[in-house]
Fold each of these.
Amino acid sequence: MAETETAGPAPRLALLTPYGLGLPEAEATATALTAACAAGDVAAVLLRLAPSDERGLVNLLKQLCPAAQEWGAAVVVSVPGFAGDLVSVAARGGADGVHLDRPDEPALRDLRGRLRDGRILGAGGVLGSRDTAMLAGEAGADYLMFGGLFPDGVAPDPDEVRERAAWWAEIFETPCIAVAAQAGEVAGLAATGAEFVGLESALWLGDAEAVRIAQAQLDTVR
């Protein structure tokens, strides 16, 4: 990874779903994704699905992915606790890639070698250690995610998220997502130089107007 030399364009939005997303929430989530993607420049959506059998996950992705992809957003899938073949699920379900939280380097390198057709590999849970973040980048992750709710619903310290995203964006070429858990965090994260500002589901799932407001804040960085 080489050092960056010039400032990039304004950050784009990424949307994060709640953890444990399953079939009962699929229709409402797809509707909310369509509204949110229409309200801002959404580059990516992270689907955090509940563990299930591979067939069920594939069918769920087929319901959810088009709602974002029709607007040009890439869809990456995370299934915490899933012991099956996530790469196969993503490919069969039409997702654009996979996302792992707190992955070890061998797992990332294995997935990097198995992902085909330009599919995306993302890594999260790297907030607590700069060494962990750098190892994830070296292992071939296409982006790193700083911040984002923990599975128990607790949000990381927003100052730490902002500091780590600014550090990464200043030094490394691998893009990063800096995640806002509260609306008041968006402007500060947009100023870090991160390529993407993520919005937790509380900021978009129930009201697309929040996406328009976030987009307006990102536009001021241009």
Amino acid sequence: MIGTMGWKKFSSRTVYENDWMAVREDHVRNPGGGENQYGYVHFKNIAVAILPLDNEDHTWLVGQSRYTLGEYSWELPMGGAPRDEAPVTAAQRELAEETGLRANDWQELMRLHTSNSITDEQAIVFVATDLAMGNTALEESEDISTRRLHIDTAIEMAARGEITDAISVAALLRVGLMRRGES
């Protein structure tokens, strides 16, 4: 992909790496002809987010402390899909782990890039319906609380800035537009 659209990559090196991501630094020629270093974060997984929706138009948000922000965040259930796993399979696992919900119907809502000037992260959002409740299976690093609320309330929270996670905001506002017949 790099090498098209006016960019040319000469070399690349990994500056830092762990199980989830790598920080890379590429020596490039930019579209203006100058040469420079371009640093970015490569994610090893695809982000998957789930907007569960029951037959009474309720959804579930998960709340957790986000270390990077030093803040508590309400957002859609989400996690990572290894690149060799079907994203919907990972979404099913993440929904069950974080909320205890299982869904019989899965529809892809959207695909997006979260911050494409500094990362190659890809995200896929699913709407999950025909829900049944089960048990959660939180990971050691997760201190999650769940909140069931009407989908319109969640959309309003995103519109008011009470939900700031980019994937969650995009998905909720998209559903809001769809419910108004605008998308």
